[in-house]
């Protein structure tokens, strides 16, 4: 087999491996997000209550915005 044939097979294997890796990673991330959803307002309220504070709506919105900016 010539060197360019080996090169083409190598490139094809890299492309196929990248596509398969992308699909597997996407499935794993979707499953993780389904099992462990991102933080929501009820969880923030529970967090404030566990710290012994009664959260105002402004506190909750501020914390939600900070979480969204952090992503």
3D architecture notes:
By secondary structure, the protein is an all-alpha fold. Helices cover about 80% and strands about 0% of the residues.
The structure class reads: mainly alpha
Largest sheet: none
Q: What is the CA–CA distance across the termini? A: 49 Å
Q: Could you tell me the mean pLDDT?
A: 91
**Counted beta strands:** 0
Count up the helices: 3
**Percent of residues in beta strands?**
under 5%
Q: Helical proportion?
A: over 70%
Which parts are unreliable, with pLDDT below 50 for 5 consecutive residues or more? none
Q: Gyration radius, to the nearest Å?
A: 23 Å
Note the overall shape.
rod-shaped
N-to-C order of helices and strands:
HHH
């Amino acid at each position: 087999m010539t060197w360019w044939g080996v090169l083409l097979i190598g490139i094809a294997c890299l492309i196929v491996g990248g596509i398969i890796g992308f699909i597997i990673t996407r499935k794993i991330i979707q499953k993780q997000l389904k099992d462990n959803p991102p933080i929501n307002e009820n969880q923030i309220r529970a967090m404030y209550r566990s710290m012994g504070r009664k959260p105002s709506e402004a506190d909750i919105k501020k914390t939600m915005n900070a979480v969204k900016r952090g992503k």
